[in-house]
């Protein structure tokens, strides 16, 4: 970076700092504060009206829009939407562990990688079909989730986060150094693509509809589950584990189940990732990937399934839409996130406790 670019960056940072301080002062003023509260009430009223009165039309219209959207887009944007759908699946799974059960899991990318490598190894080794690899990758990742959930039963908060952070680092080191099996940093090439009745899925639009189908199935299943006794038990554990145990909830089983379910969904997403790109390497499953998915859950609203999906689409699509602003796009994007967290800390669709 030359002195001109360094000067520009310093000027932008200084301007951003002044702007931020101005936003804070402006936000604390009484007229603005009362206006913000009134605006939030109007939004809540509008959202309640939409949810109660027009849910069917809203879901139906959104589904129809997603189905016909590829007709109006080129392959680049279809591919971006497929990636957003993949992250929506990951965010929906992590929302179970973090949002519903209240278990801070920073090692989520490890399960994602386990699912991808299980399918990658079996596809290139014995020619395993994608349709068999999908449940197998999810099952193996869920098994690792059971193991991690059992080990960390007595941990919560920061201590649980540290242990799960260690887990993702262990998995990364194993994938990166076990050359004889995982091919180390070189990764695995030529992974099999999905095929249906002899027709190979290889176009971006094929994977768009495939990830849309997977996301719909997972969203419906999780929607039903979170409104059952199991979902209410997770929320009780999140709010007060001791009180939940006193009410007769088997907290051990529920916490392990939350870990296993979230890990299984991540494993399924990993299989889809491996089949779509036909190449995987350890660099795709690092701690930063866990943070990215966690950011999607927090942005959308912890505990809210629609919020997690919305957060995944926003955090995938917005950086692409701001790509024309070159090196300033991440600065603008970060500032927008901070402002959103100040005025709506519970997330876009989350509920304030």
Structural account:
By secondary structure, the chain is an all-alpha fold. Helix content is 76%, strand content 1%. It is built from 15 helices and 2 strands. It has helices at 3-28, 30-53, 55-68, 75-100, 108-126, 130-151, 157-177, 179-182, 204-226, 229-239, 241-246, 251-277, 287-300, 305-321, 329-343; strands at residues 195-196, 199-200. Strands 1-2 form a two-stranded antiparallel ribbon. α5 packs across α12 (251-277). The model has no long low-confidence stretch (mean pLDDT 84).
Q: Total number of helical segments?
A: 15
Specify the overall morphology. globular
Share of residues in strands: under 5%
- Strand arrangement within the widest β-sheet reads 1-2
The total beta strand count reads 2
Structural class, from secondary structure content? mainly alpha
User: What is the subunit organization of this protein?
Assistant: single chain
In angstroms, what separates the terminal alpha carbons?
46 Å
Low-confidence stretches are: none
Largest sheet: 2 strands, antiparallel
Helix content: over 70%
Succession of helices and strands: HHHHHHHHEEHHHHHHH
Radius of gyration: 22 Å
Mean of all residue-level pLDDT scores? 84
